[in-house]
Write a structure and sequence with these properties.
mainly alpha, 0% strand
Length: 33
């Protein structure tokens, strides 16, 4: 699963909030690997 670049940037901007959300963090982690 590939996340759009804009979504990745948005997630990184909101990292403090999203870091506690497994639904956001796990897909990001798998897409980066």
């Amino acid at each position: 699963v590939k996340l759009p670049f804009e979504k990745l940037v948005h997630a990184l901007r909101n990292f403090p909030e999203d870091a506690l959300d497994p639904d956001t963090l796990l897909p990001m982690a798998y897409s980066i690997k």
